[in-house]
Write a structure and sequence with these properties.
It is a single chain. The protein has one domain: Vaccinia Virus protein VP39 (Rossmann fold), CATH 3.40.50.150. The chain is an alpha/beta fold and about 210 residues long. It has a seven-stranded mixed beta sheet, with helices on both faces. It is globular, with a radius of gyration of 17 Å. Strand 2, helix 3 and strand 3 form a beta-alpha-beta unit. It contains eight helices and seven strands.
């Protein structure tokens, strides 16, 4: 599960969760990242969705704010900034990284995940639905290990750790999605991760 893999890279105690609501506020779901972070750390959250932040506040969740990922200002620094499935939505990913760096302690860490556009899963989707080559209409860009490393370097970060992981969503009811996933899961026993894994998980540290 993506949330569990992200948690392995998070250092506390102070954590900022960018895009804290996720696509939906799902406090009862074991894969809801913000809930898992709050079980272990002192967490601040930001999200661009006013309705989702209002919903979270109605559930009693505190220290959450309506702010944009590429222009936020909180006046605090954190041991880790987490951004799960955020950077691919942004108009200004470099500006986002600059804001993150300002909000990290000197030895802090950025942990982010983003879809891996060269995976077999996404290639099959693009081939089947071309020219609609991305399932999520809110995505503005794709990243690969080379491009995200270079973007991060320009904003004062270097890759500390990275790996490819699975990010299967059991709540999706699409028959084709389930069929694709079953096929790829089977092929995963024969093919390398660079073909079958769907998500990049990366931990960055600030350049000195």
């Amino acid at each position: 599960m993506r949330a569990d893999e992200i948690l392995k890279l998070v250092n506390g105690p102070a954590v900022l969760d960018i895009g804290c609501a996720g696509h939906e506020v799902k406090p009862d779901q074991p894969g809801w990242l913000h809930g898992k972070l709050r079980e272990r750390f002192q967490v601040t959250g930001i999200d661009i969705s006013e309705s989702n932040i209002a919903h979270m506040k109605s559930l009693g969740i505190q220290d959450i704010h309506v702010q944009s990922a590429d222009s936020f200002e909180l006046g605090r620094q954190y041991d880790t900034v987490v951004a799960g499935e955020v950077i691919e939505h942004l108009s200004n990913p470099g500006q986002f990284l600059a804001r993150v760096r300002k909000h990290l302690v000197p030895d802090g860490r950025l942990v982010l995940s983003t879809p891996y556009g060269f995976s077999l899963m996404y290639a099959l989707y693009a081939a089947n639905y071309f020219p609609k080559t991305c399932a999520n209409g809110e995505h503005a860009c794709w990243f690969c290990p080379t491009t995200i490393r270079e973007l991060a370097r320009r904003e004062g970060f270097e890759v500390e750790k990275w790996r490819l992981i699975d990010d299967y969503d059991p709540s999706v009811t699409s028959r084709k999605y389930r069929l694709y996933w079953k096929l790829i899961h089977t092929l995963g026993k024969l093919l390398p991760d660079k073909l079958t894994k769907t998500t990049m998980l990366i931990a960055f540290k600030c350049l000195s």
